Amino acid sequence: MTDERYLKRTVLKETVASRYLPEGERNLRVYLPPGYNELLSYPVVYCQDGEDFFNFGRIATTANRLILDEGIEPFIIVGVDVDKTHRTSEYSPDGERHADYVRFFGEEMLPFIEAKYPVRRDPDQRVLAGDSLGGTVSFHLALTYPHLFKRIMSLSGAYYDRSREIMESQTDLGQLELYMIVGLQETAYETDHGTMNFVEINRHARKLLTERGAKLSYAEMNGMHQWGFWQQEIPDALMYFLEKE
């Protein structure tokens, strides 16, 4: 049974105006930790697929538990929502909306949050989190804005051909730190890009990243390409990046 304290979550809704996105705006959800005080400063986790991370990943409930019971330093979570009909176009590096989404994220969404909430601005205090293509776009955000992002939580990252080509073209990825997991049952998953073996994709990405100096925590375990698997792994992923008080 879930402790009632974990369910007392503070999650605010925000809308960011955008000159890059065709819709002209994007919705966010912002988790504030227990004991939130705007006079303090907080590490921050930026999640792709914001609605899914909160609803299916239960990341706010998990954050409450880690802060209240595990002594993890309080942190803020920002979930960036996505219209699923445009998700591949925005998250995949060969998508027609990808460049605009990346610019929105780094040049509009981030400044909006930093102007309104006391989040820390050191790249070591920011984490990008994503599942599947959300992991992919997090990697490309860190490549585009190396002065802003360097830490990536990648849950079954969809590092398809174009992403791996971009990885291969890099000479030094020593600034990156990734927490990568993939499920051993993800060997034949149907995607917009065809049937994919995510285990092989992530093994190949790990090799390319390691050869270029990135710091990795990499694990393969039993799991399918779905939130039932990722939700169970989010606590360890958060604890990897966030420090105890």
From TrEMBL:
<dbReference type="InterPro" id="IPR029058">
    <property type="entry name" value="AB_hydrolase_fold"/>
</dbReference>
<dbReference type="InterPro" id="IPR050583">
    <property type="entry name" value="Mycobacterial_A85_antigen"/>
</dbReference>
<dbReference type="Pfam" id="PF00756">
    <property type="entry name" value="Esterase"/>
</dbReference>
<dbReference type="InterPro" id="IPR000801">
    <property type="entry name" value="Esterase-like"/>
</dbReference>
<protein>
    <recommendedName>
        <fullName>Enterochelin esterase</fullName>
    </recommendedName>
</protein>
